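ugh ok fine here u go
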Amino acid sequence: MVKEFKLILRDKGTIAILVIIPLIQLILFGFAIKIDPKHLPTAVIVYDHSPLTRGIISNLQASTYFDIVDTSNNFKEAKQKLESGKISFIVTIPENFTHDFIRGNNPQILVELDGSDPGSSGTAVSVFQPILQRTIDYFIKNGLNVVSNTKNVNLIMHRNYNEANKSELSIIPGLIGVLLTMTMVMLTSSSITRENEDGTMEMLLSTPLRPLEIIIGKILPYVTLGYLQLSVTLIFSKFLVNLPLDSNIFLLYFSSAPFIIANLMIGMIFSALASTPMQAMQLGMLYQLPSLMISGYIFSFFGMPKWAQLIGSCLPMTYYIRISRGVILKGNQFLQVIPNLIPICIISVIFIIIASKVFKQTLD
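structure:
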């Protein structure tokens, strides 16, 4: 027992991991992750300008659940933002809305939401009707001398890209990124430490290969395994849950290359920094935890505080989830994928540079 305690105390890395992991979880679950997300970006298309419609918009903004980020009244542009994941809701108020309301014709308000993002709706959808009713009551009380129960507004909800609200359709496209992150980081995180333990590092040192060349030689087989895992996941998803794969699936394969490379580079960096395979795996857990929690996979990305969004913007999985959901569920094309593909490529290049530097120091 005394020997084991001494070994544990000498392993500073393990002790640090045991302290850091609970701390990260407390910070993420206590401050970053919101089960009741607010400040969700919303576009408002208004074809009827009146005190009633202005009251509806101002009350939506005042509820803190919605941030009105687009009032250009350009429906096509708003639709493109919804497809690319830049906004979560589109609220459309039609022409003659106030006129029809006063006449008792029960006008409609259309609310379109991104059904591919499971964390963006929830409570935000349920507060629409109370906000609308409160605005109507105030308008009738202060603007019309009529019986309030004769006036009503029909709220129409459209859950775009997942009309049946099937949770598996919104979860599985993001799950592809989660699986690739977990396996690619895990496979490569113990690569260099295993070379040291097996005594084969000296053989690599005796070759004229440069650090970057050794890294490329090590990751290329894992890139193949990454594509194999992607294919297996897509095939099983098609037959088990009928995931729609009628869109340009080759675009997903193309976009997966820099994402797989980025995760492999993270594993190589951890492998070079760790002294044992166990430490490398523990460092991998530290990376996978925020990738899972603040990338928008489970919880709304826009519902998190700005500092958490900033950290999430540095993670390649944040952008890959948007790409996979966009290609599979929304039918996005190449031009719509580019805004999320470019950050992954930049992150991959940065990780390659860091890995080559760290690996070179390890060889020295």
